[in-house]
Write a structure and sequence with these properties.
Blueprint lengths: L5 E7 L6 H12 L5 E7 L7 H6 L3 E4 L8 H15 L4 E5 L1 H11 L6 E5 L11 H13 L7 E4 L2 H10 L6 E3 L13 H10 L7 E6 L8 H14 L3 E6 L22 E3 L6 H5 L4 E4 L8 H8 L4 E4 L4 H5 L3 E4 L4 H12 L3 H18 L2 H16 L14 E2 L3
Parallel strand pairs: 1-2, 1-4, 2-3, 4-5, 5-6, 6-7, 8-9, 8-11, 9-10, 11-12, 12-13
Antiparallel strand pairs: 7-14
Amino acid sequence: MAGEPLKVWHVITSTGVGGAETQLLRLAQALGPERVAHRVACLLPLGALAGPLGATGAQVYSLNLQPGLGALTRGAKALRRLLAAWPADLVQTWMYHADLLGLLASRPLTLPLVWTLRCSDLDLSRYRRSTRLVLKACTALAHLPQPRVIVANSQSGLDFHVRLGYPRRKLRLIPNGFDTDLFAPGPAEGARRRAALGWGPDDLVVGHVARLDPAKDHAGFLTAARLLAGRLPAARFLLIGQGVEQGNPLFAACQEPPLAGRCALLGRRDDVPAWLQAMDVFAQSSLSEGLPNALGEALASGLPVAATAAGDTAALVGPAGRVVPPGQPYALAEALEQLLRLPERERQALGLLGRQRMEQGYSLAAMAGAYLELYQEMAGRPAAAGGKGPGGAAPAKE
């Protein structure tokens, strides 16, 4: 009914810390309960972002499924009961397992269904056989009347799924949105954080923010860090992300020359915006991405970046940094060295350019507005007056 909030079920694999989960949280924060009533069904046990999601006014439920194909039947029945208990205007699913389960659960209820794609150039050899089978099923089922719309967060991801066999006519592009109030330069706080690590204003801090996952290529970053450490004595390395901790054999190199005494492994943090302020440059070493959250947050924080050309990274960075091929740590080290050898004023100018790109082309408001228009379309409600802002929904390119 006109004037009432839209009712949206979100189905997502986990509520742990990850790109899709973070964007769902940002969306729920931007489209609060006065415009959209959100309910979230999580396939796995609740994770770290369940609390923040609940704080937005969303109700969060867990199906407590265990990974594996055997969970599909049990999960579909449990999810169908949830969806039926709170009839919504539409269902939005996030990532392949949730896409498949959401389709199975929503079909008897005839609820409009929106799938959400979050990756590109996926190297399937790194994933379980069950995940590969789920993707194969989604590719075939995508041609059914449901889902009505399939949203990709990157043009590269959209094109990749068309090559897999997804129907181009259903695909739309809504890039990630970034909170440029939360992620912003802060020299004073950055200096305090550096001092807490024993680093001073003359040190050159390279930051890396990513959960421990093969697609993020931490091993490649560490190779680049070793090369850079041998060339720049002032280089320091600040690594943040779930699983990025002392004791993991992958990070044993941080205890050996030339990295010994020059690395800080902070693991998962809830205060990433402040730690970004402590960095001089930001590195992304990913082999595969869609439109990377951590990179956009670094750009919003005013950091020049050296990044691998995974997903839509090159489009996101533009002239605000250096982009190199994935899987080439020597090239990444060279790009980082180029940035660190720039005069400080030139680095700051690059950082300001990156922040302006986030404000003008990838704002949180633009993403939220594009999703709101999509929800209104799915619910058969008239859209608000005015066109789409930068980064708004767009059909697939032909």
